[in-house]
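Technical annex B. To support the medicinal chemistry partners, we prepared a structural model of the target in complex with hypoxanthine, based solely on the information shown next.
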Amino acid sequence: MINMSAQYRQTYEALAKQIPFEPEICVVLGSGLGDFAEKVETIKSIPTSSLPNYPVSTVQGHQGFLHFANYANKKLLIIQGRIHLYEGYRISQCMVPVFIASKLNCKKILLTNAAGGVNHHFKPGDLMLNTSFNGINIKKELADLIGVTLLEKKNAFIDFPSGSFNNVIKKAALEEKISLKEGVYWYNKGPAYETPAEIQMTKKFGGDAVGMSTVHEAVYASYLGMEVSAISCITNMAAGLSSQKLYHTEVMETAELVKKDFERLVKKIIELS
Ligand code: HPA
């Protein structure tokens, strides 16, 4: 049973009154990937602004909706309203979407994100299945939130990614003939993009892509007992690895180009789940 703070409880209770069904699978949509919500049969869309204590997403491309949808006989919760630490929120506020998914009984959660490519075999437009993450830059915040409770648990192991869910994702990519790269997602708090020197360090330490989300959600979802996997859309090469300057608009433009493949892949994952 989750120990709900008063704020979380208020958010959950306001939401529980409105939901059309209990979802099985949650998909959190990353920057520029929000359109996926329109590609499935939406039963009800709840604006996050109508929920008490749900932080307002300030980032372009994160619209602030919880969509209850059907696809391939699966009941879905599609979250178009991720919250990042760099928006100035506390870690507990960033966890609200994952908390909701868990409280509504989602067994699986697929996290998606836009990321900068570090691995020189990658190019903008690639999709990368996360094989692990590096969350060293967010350890303090995570410890503040769930560290004590983790210590109380017999097993404080972070089960990310879920091996069985990753197998489903690989099978889906194979069936859809989508070339799915694999690699380690490296978290940076942002909001500034990394410097070329930071990217060189990331590369030396085994990072394949960098981004500003996902890790806190993966840790919390795993802690709450959900099967969790993550897919990154490589929207740009990371700082210093291409001659182009980095802008959020480039991230959005590349996500736009890859969204057809992304949609096919996520649909197939849902079908096979
Ligand atoms: N760095 C961090 N986050 C990102 C990037 C990047 O290069 N691209 C998309 N999100």
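Notes passed to the chemistry partners:
The first helix runs from residue 6 to 16.
The chain has eight helices and nine strands.
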